Amino acid sequence: VASLPSGQVQISVRRRGEHEPTHILGDALINSTGIEYDWRRVDRPLPRQLLARGLIQPGPLALGIAAAHDGAVLDAQGQRSAHLFAMGPPLRGMW
User: InterPro entries annotated for this entry (predicted)?
Assistant: First the structure.
């Protein structure tokens, strides 16, 4: 994880079986390692706003949020986001 002069955050991830890391740029990094996996029940402003605006949807069995295999978040209509990506615990129900 690196904070860039532009104010963005760069995350470097090396996937299993790959030699080179993948770099992901974003405007924020959210530590979501808490024990509540049903985002509809999380009492925090960001998850509530993302759900209310239809920018995310609950994942399978309400474990985290729904996303494509590359981590692109799926909105309330099931469309891939070009700007929101998830990794780790928010994707618990995906695999």
Answer: L-asp_N-monooxygenase_NS-form
